[in-house]
Amino acid sequence: MFLLLRRMALVPSFARALSSSTTSASLLPRSPAITIGRRRILSFFQSFLQSTMASLRKLNNTQRICLVFAAAAAGVAIAMIKAHRRQQIDATSEWGRYADRPALRGLALSLLITRLVPYIVLPGIIEKITGKSVGGDDYDGYDSREQHSSYLRFIYSFIYFKPRELRTRGGKLFADGLLKLGPLYIKIGQILSCRKDLFPDEWILAMEKLQDRVPAKSGIEAWNLLYEACPGGRAGFHQRFADFDDVPLAAASLGQVHKGRLRTGERVAIKIQRSRLRDIYDKDLALMKKIAKVVDTLGKAGRVGGVEQSWEGIFSDAETILYREIDYRDEADNAIRFAADFGIGLGGTAIESTAKGLDGKKLPSSAEWMRTPYTYRDLSSEKFLVMEYVPSIKVSDYKKLDEAGVTAEDREYLAEALARSYLRQFCSNKFFSTDPHPGNLGVEILDDGLPRLVFYDFGQACSLADHQAVGILEVIESIIDSDAEKSVAAFSRMGVLKDNADLRKIQAKCQQNYDTGMLKVKKRRKRSSARHSQKTRTDAYDIDLEARLDASEKRLNETQTRVEEVNDAEIVGYFTLQSEYAFVARALSQLDGVGKGLDPEFDFISAAAPHLVEVKGVGRYLVDEMKKRLKFVYDPDDGILAKEMALFKSLGFDPNVTKN
């Protein structure tokens, strides 16, 4: 920078050269006034630069450095002001610039964090000062403010109402900041919006707009985006489609959805991709890949909850999924497979399912209790996706659900349907949607008034290997049975244990969790009506499940002994997290948030437990249950037959040897 400033000394010479060359090159007569005016301007310019350079030469190095930094800061400030003005018109205007210049995004992120600090800290401070929760709508002693002075009324107003306002503003600031940073940050916001256990309600409400209310193009801009994305352009669109609503139904990080109508008469939903997404992904993901490598080199610092993992490996798989998400042909294939696995056809009708249970038999269609839009693969392309139009109520819009007559029991049923669907996805389909946030889930009200769960958006999906699916099922069953030994065996099958894992300590920790009730499956609540009994089709097995849970509790009470107390820190180092399980964990985290929004008592395993018989098949389920109940006979280590075999051998008889 200093050398550049020194080069400015050449500018006066350039100005003189420009003056002389301009004068000599002039062939046409000019008025004296114009010539004099030009000379004065050039003279002023030359004098100004000379005086500036003279002033700079008088500065010491420290002053020059400070001047350079001040100039740079002024430049950044001007750039930020211009960006803010553009974002006031279009919140997505800086996505491309941030991808081209990651330092600008880093600065914007730093400023966002700095601005959020007061909104995070102040409510907690006020809560500690008052000794009362600041999240409520009122305070028991607040009405007594009428007897106090106006000054005290102001203090009361600040203490009991300001924190809620601070949280509301903080949530809005955070959501708006993520929106302006780009599509990957919107994805982060979508995930966080499902975690009501981590954020205040005001923040959750603000982040929910990132699910389906991202600023979108409409009018002529929407038509231009449509023609750019549609195969065949303008002519290709009008050849196949009779109508298009240029006001979007919803918009998210990658695209926006519009209503349309085919020339054959069917109403469809048309998903159009935003412009420049691939270029933005290329640059953002390249940066994140470098960060993942750095985190891996940090060793323990790269652990999550103490569990060692390869962030580069996780990122590599995430990168594949994210790139597939911006190719709508892949999303179309995912949607078609998802519908086939659950046996759902056009119009939500039941068709034969392609998924099989553990007994090898095809699973029943789920069209009675869930639905997904039919996908028109032949009309879709990389940036253009055509689906059946399926209107519904957003699963987290509780006010509209109430207005539609969805009862508390209906919500419990919907939460259980969500768990049931993911039990099938994990353990039978071996293919699951990794992004079940509320923007991708709806509730359809059927003609008989019953609700049905609707799945949308399959841009992010993940496949599981056979051993991974079986391992997940065995973990679920071991938790239902409170069987620590089986839990360890399931972890081994899943491939999440390192070679040096201390199985004894892991089993002791599992047993400790079961004994203390930290991991416990709740019994299914009795429903007050038969409204959903036909659709669940597992009520006949509730008695068996209750007996199974009772037996598990009885066994714990009878065999409970003082086991070695093991801290989490002692065993987390024995686990390694494969990338597929990172997506399983993400899906579980999001569906847990959705489930608790519908039913505060929701937990995935308790809700999924009654449907194990569907996944395993009736025959396989009954055989496995019989083996467990006769374990005291057939157990290879401690069963009656094993003990009798040992007794015979101790007496000199070998039952395996037959004498002639």
From TrEMBL:
Residue stretches making up the ABC1 atypical kinase-like domain: 210-487
CDD domains, per the entry: ABC1_ADCK3-like
Species this chain originates from: Stephanodiscus triporus
Family assignment from sequence similarity: Belongs to the protein kinase superfamily. ADCK protein kinase family.
Signal peptide extent: 1-17
Official protein name in the record: ABC1 atypical kinase-like domain-containing protein
SUPFAM superfamilies in alphabetical order: Protein kinase-like (PK-like)
Swiss-Prot/TrEMBL keywords: Signal
Pfam families for this protein: ABC1
Domain of life of the source: Eukaryota
